[in-house]
Task: inverse folding
C-alpha cells in the first residue's frame, strides 16, 4: 500500500486528509493519472495544477519520482509559513 | 514515546509547537556553552492585522508533521555549511494565532555579525518557500481564505542560489 | 534635569547605559502600537572570551557623551530613510563588561522581513565605524590593551555607500 | 574659549581628558599645529596621525573644519564600539 496525504486547500477541495491506496503505480505521475479520474476537482488540483507540490517520504519530489509499497506521498499547494 | 518527543530528540534545534515562545529565553539557550560568540541575530515573524488590504481576525497555521521538522533541519544544516556559525534554532508555531502574535523565530549565533545576519536571512527565505506550512486567514465577518504564496518569496529564495 | 534624562527625551529610540537590557522586553516595547508589523530583526553583540587569540577577562567601554547619542540617532534616521520600517531602537552599554555579557542591541520592525534584515545590518555596520565608542580589554594577567579598529569594519560600512 | 576633549588612548597618551583654550585658531588644523608643539606625544597623536578622528560640536569634522569661540573640539582614535 501507499499512504497518500492531502494538505491545506487540497484537503478541503478533495474532501480528505489521507488514504491508503494499493501500490500499483511506479511513479507519482501514474498515481496522479489515476486520482484525476475521480472527478473535475481531482483533475484540477493534481493533474492540471502547475503549482502542485509533491513530497515522497518527507522529501520534495516531482511527477517523475518513483514510488513503491510503504511510501508516503503528499500533495499540497505552495507553502506559506513563516 | 509521543511522536513530538521523538522529533525533538532527533532535531533538538527545531521546534514546531502550539505554544508561544520567549525571545530572551531562546537566545539564552542558543548561546549556552558558546563563549566565543560575538553576534546573535534573531528574526521574529508576527501576525499582521492587515494582509493584502483586508483586516485579519485569526490566522491558522497547518503543517505536515514529520516533513516539517526534516525540511527545517535541512535548511538549518545548509546555513551551517554556508557560513561559520556557532549555533542556531528554528521555532515555528502551529494552530490558531491572532494579530501581533509571534509565529516564527530564527536565531543564529556566530563569532562575527556578517555570518549571523546572512544565515538568519537565508534561513527565513528558505523556510518561506521550502517548509510545509500553510496559513489560513479568518476575517472579522467569519470568511476564511487560504493565504496565497508570494512570488516575492520565490524571488527572495533565488537570491541565495 | 540630569544630562542623561535630557538625552533620552531628545532621542527616545537611543539608549547609552551601564545597565544590561532584556531582549524580549525591548522587542515588546519596539512593537508597541505597531500592529502592522510582520518582521522584527534584532542583533545582540556580546563580549567574546577571546579576541585576536588572547583571553579577555574584562572589557571596558568608553564613549563621548552627547556625540554618541547624536551619531546613533543619525544612523537610525538614515536606516529609516533607506528602508520602509515601522520602528527601531539602539541600546549600547558603557562601562565594565565581562565575557558573554551583552554589549549592544539593534532591533528593527517592519512589514516585510527584507527591510528589517537590511536595516539592522546597516545600522550595526555604521555604528561600528561612526559611533564614538572605544573598547579597552584587560587580560587575566592584568595587562590592558585598547582594541584596534578593524579594517573589515571599514570595508563592511563601504558596502552600503 | 574653545573646549577641547581627548578620548580613549589619546586621553591616556596626552595625560588629560579636556581643557579650555583661547579661541585663537580659525581651523582645526591651526589648533593641532599649536598643540603639536607641546611635545613628541602631542605631535604623534595629532599632527602625524593619519587615523586621527576629529569632531566639532558632536559632528564628524576634519582638519579644514572652521572653529570659533564656544565650540567643542574632540580628538580621538578610530572607534571600536558595537
Result:
Amino acid at each position: 500500500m501507499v499512504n497518500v496525504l492531502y494538505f491545506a486547500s487540497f484537503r478541503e477541495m478533495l474532501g480528505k486528509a489521507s488514504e491508503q491506496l494499493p501500490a500499483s503505480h511506479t511513479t507519482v505521475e501514474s498515481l496522479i493519472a489515476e486520482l484525476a479520474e475521480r472527478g473535475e476537482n481531482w483533475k484540477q488540483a493534481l493533474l492540471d495544477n502547475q503549482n502542485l507540490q509533491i513530497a515522497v517520504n518527507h522529501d520534495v519530489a516531482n511527477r517523475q519520482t518513483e514510488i513503491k509499497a510503504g511510501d508516503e506521498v503528499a500533495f499540497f499547494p505552495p507553502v506559506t509559513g513563516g | 514515546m509521543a511522536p513530538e518527543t521523538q522529533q525533538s530528540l532527533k532535531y533538538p534545534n527545531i521546534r514546531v509547537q502550539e505554544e508561544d515562545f520567549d525571545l530572551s529565553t531562546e537566545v539564552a539557550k542558543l548561546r549556552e556553552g558558546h563563549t566565543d560568540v560575538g553576534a546573535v541575530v534573531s528574526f521574529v515573524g508576527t501576525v499582521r492585522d492587515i494582509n493584502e488590504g483586508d483586516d485579519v481576525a485569526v490566522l491558522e497555521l497547518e503543517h505536515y508533521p514529520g516533513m516539517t521538522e526534516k525540511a527545517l533541519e535541512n535548511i538549518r544544516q545548509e546555513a551551517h555549511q554556508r557560513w561559520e556559525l556557532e549555533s542556531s534554532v528554528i521555532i515555528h508555531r502551529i494552530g490558531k494565532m491572532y494579530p501581533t502574535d509571534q509565529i516564527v523565530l530564527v536565531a543564529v549565533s556566530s563569532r562575527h555579525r556578517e555570518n549571523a545576519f546572512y544565515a538568519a536571512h537565508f534561513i527565513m527565505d528558505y523556510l518561506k518557500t521550502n517548509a510545509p506550512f500553510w496559513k489560513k486567514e479568518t476575517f472579522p465577518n467569519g470568511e476564511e481564505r487560504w493565504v496565497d504564496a508570494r512570488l516575492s518569496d520565490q524571488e527572495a529564495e533565488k537570491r541565495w542560489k
Observations:
- The domain at 2-76 of chain A is CATH 3.10.20.30 (Ubiquitin-like (UB roll)).
- The first helix of chain A runs from residue 8 to 14.
- Chains A and C do not touch (no CB pair under 8 Å).
